Prior knowledge:
Helix content: 55-70%
Distance between the termini: 86 Å
Number of strands: 10
Order of helices and strands: EEHHHHHHHHHHHHEEEEEEEEHHH
Shape: elongated
Largest sheet: 4 strands, antiparallel
Low-confidence stretches: none
Strand content: 5-15%
Amino acid sequence: GFLEDGILVQDRGRIRLRYLHSPSFPWDMAAVLPTDLLYLRLGLGVPAVRANRCLRVPRLFEAFDRRETHTAHPNAFRVAKLMLYVFIAIHWHGCLYFALSARLGLGADTWVCPNASRPGFSRPLRQYLHSFYFSTLILTTVGDTPEPQREEEFLFVTAGFLLAVLGFATITGSISSVISNMNAADAAFYPNPEPVRCYLRAQGASGRLVRRVARWHQHLQMQRKLPAERAVLQHLPRGLQAEVAASVHLPALRRVRLFQSWERSVLQQLVLRLQPQVFGPGEFVCRRGDVGHEMYFVREGQLAVVAEDGVTQLAVLGEGLYFGEISLINIKGNTSGNRRTANIMSIGYSDLFCLSKEDLAEVLAEFPSARAMMEAKGRELLLHMGKLDVHAEAAAAAVAQEAECQAQALETALEGLQTQAARLLAQLESSAFKLALRVEHLECQLRR
């Protein structure tokens, strides 16, 4: 198919018509002409009659470019393509070597290809392998080839060496490009640990801390964790970002009890607000008394609720659970305010989703049921820890009810005022209309 005004056209008739009027059609026609029939007149010793097949080389390059953009392993494809080019170059050089040998005379000297009288060279395969091997020695500048005897042989070897120099430069540049692309791809997905290591060494940090940082980076690459996921997807449209992120993270979100009743379209919008974070063994996600700015959902791993000594485990949080919402939502009677109420430590490597306070407020505004569920869980935890003032909660509820009653009274009074204002406006319009009629009547009498 082809694109027309941004729409993919797959109609065969239109595709055929477009191809017939394209500049590549004459070249493709010339490439498929049955020039092989000339063998019947010229014989099999004239392979140049099939040279028109080379007119499709641009099509081959186009196919390579398209396959490179579609393959999942572009670097391996580039290496394979480079090796194919090397093989073809050696093949053509070997064919030229055999043609020159046939022109000078097979077996005429030690440099040319031996003739059929030499044992084993009566078969074409053996002659081809000898030519391919000889060309490989020349193009790789390995040497160990017979010394040329004639001017044509010297020119051929010199041209082969010059071609080898160009080939080595091309191969070296291509391999360097492949390696650079691989490093660039890794750098785009995973943070570079070297700047952090250099900083820690310059500041005289302990070796234990340096090893922890190294193990964290190693875990990211081994487990394919992407902490900078938003940066990777930022060039995509927002709708496509949601589709990609949902295809990766939606199964994990479905395991969170809070999200199990939510629709897929809502989760696709939520997943763009979640920030993946990875915590290492013994690392604290939050500490008691800290100001809370985000809440967390456990995707993988286990976390422990520890006491103040940092060792005693009070509870273990696993996959599908969430925490940190108490310091973000306004629970009436919460004596800790917006402070963290527990110490959460990662037991091993833990993969979490982080949701900021602002994004959480937007989500809860759209889904009051989720807010009610979070408040119920938070109230239960606060009551268990003794940080919920029941009397303050009741007082706050009474104040809220009184404020609601006052708001309703104000709404009723406002409705009454609006009704009176409407009546007065109607009376004013009626009086103005009557006055206009009287003025018009007086004007008529004065004209008479």
